Amino acid sequence: MTNRDEARRLADQLLxxxxxxxxxxxxxxxxxxxxxxxxxxxxxQRLARHLGVELAPPADDAAPVAPPTGPIPLPPLEITVPVLxxxxxxxxxxxxxxxxxxxxxxxxxxxxxxxxxxxxxxxxGIQVVGIDIPIGLPDDSTRQADALARKVLKGKASSVFTTxxxxxxxxxxxxxxxxxxxxxxxxxxxAQAFALRPxxxxxxxxxxxxxxxxxxxxxxxxxxxxMAGAPLLDNKKTDEGRRARLAALSxxxxxxxxxxxxxxxxxxxxxxxxxxxxxxxRRAAGLATPLPDPPEVFSDGIPAAIWA
Length: 308
Fold this sequence. Notes:
The chain has 308 residues and is an alpha/beta fold. 45% of the residues lie in helices and 13% in strands. Helix 1 packs antiparallel against helix 2 (30-51), helix 1 (3-27) crosses helix 10 and helix 2 (30-51) runs parallel beside helix 10 (239-251).
């Protein structure tokens, strides 16, 4: 990449973040405004350094800035290695690809998790794959990961479903799974939790084939709460929720993805995949932490933890 191309990329990123700042002001959320201001300020400084321009310091008599009283977002994340964030969708799986020097997340879609990862790996040496699906299935209990994530996500705890026991996922119907799960863990089986069964079993089977890439479980709402300093309470399927998530991603250093929707995948699927990819990039940089720490391990031998 030439110096001019890099300057153009930084300028484009600054414009994206300025748009996110505008949206944050329109929403009226002070914590998101602070996050967007921090992101635009950081990008402006990087652009100035790249162009060899010294920005004038604020005037000595400028009014002191009060420290933030709300949530404190994390600073923008530098992408150092290629990673992939994945979310389930009607078409199968949608992935957000982050790579060093790329101006924005690139989107890929495939019918199977193995097909998606393999397709991306053919052209890019991804180091980490984050997936929004339970990984590591309990034998006769619930998982610490789910309980801990719900504690963090105050106001959004209902977005974390309780992972069923492995025997319950092996059942052929929800009623049978309910009977099995109650006998093992004392927990019933909800319709939404059981609806995830095909995707969970698909990922479980793929993991047992021992893919030669680091794979971790990520919950998008936990990723957003980590990057923004607090859970994003707006429903992700609404315009307000979409704007809030785009603003949080921009403040975290990720420009709006290359596409937001397409055949078999919606905007909330893509934005969730981007949040998962952000956590995958944090894991590659050694910044992400698991819930619980250390992860639980059941009889399947697969570490069970949600990373953020």
